[in-house]
Amino acid sequence: MGFTSRPEACICKHFLEAVEKSKYGWFWECPSGGKCIYRHALPAGFVLKRDKKKMEDKKNEISLVDLIERERAALGSSQTKITLETFLAWKKKKIKEKQVLNLFLFHYMLPWLLRNK
Ligand SMILES: [Zn+2]
């Protein structure tokens, strides 16, 4: 395998580890010392493991939102119907409740109030 097919193969593993763990900086020194033959630089387009993980997390986040949206879209038509049905049922119940309350007020409360006047 050549360097071109696997660019990470020629990068110093100590350097890579230091970058991954955010330890790399001005004062970082390769444990292999000055005789280290590997590169202490990242090739263009190289994706660090920690960035790859971040990207995957982001992807998972997006796919979860996607999934919810898709589920919602799938439910869409029936959900509207259910909402309308439940609303009408609720309204019917409220009207009935009001009627019962009015009846109760008229037949019981009013005579009682008049009697205690
Ligand atoms: Zn090195």
From TrEMBL:
<feature type="zinc finger region" description="C3H1-type">
    <location>
        <begin position="11"/>
        <end position="43"/>
    </location>
</feature>
<dbReference type="InterPro" id="IPR000571">
    <property type="entry name" value="Znf_CCCH"/>
</dbReference>
<keyword id="KW-0863">Zinc-finger</keyword>
<protein>
    <submittedName>
        <fullName>Jg9825 protein</fullName>
    </submittedName>
</protein>
<keyword id="KW-0862">Zinc</keyword>
<dbReference type="InterPro" id="IPR032378">
    <property type="entry name" value="ZC3H15/TMA46_C"/>
</dbReference>
<dbReference type="GO" id="GO:0005829">
    <property type="term" value="C:cytosol"/>
</dbReference>
<dbReference type="GO" id="GO:0008270">
    <property type="term" value="F:zinc ion binding"/>
</dbReference>
<feature type="domain" description="C3H1-type">
    <location>
        <begin position="11"/>
        <end position="43"/>
    </location>
</feature>
<comment type="similarity">
    <text>Belongs to the ZC3H15/TMA46 family.</text>
</comment>
<keyword id="KW-0479">Metal-binding</keyword>
<dbReference type="GO" id="GO:0003729">
    <property type="term" value="F:mRNA binding"/>
</dbReference>
<dbReference type="Pfam" id="PF16543">
    <property type="entry name" value="DFRP_C"/>
</dbReference>
<dbReference type="GO" id="GO:0002181">
    <property type="term" value="P:cytoplasmic translation"/>
</dbReference>
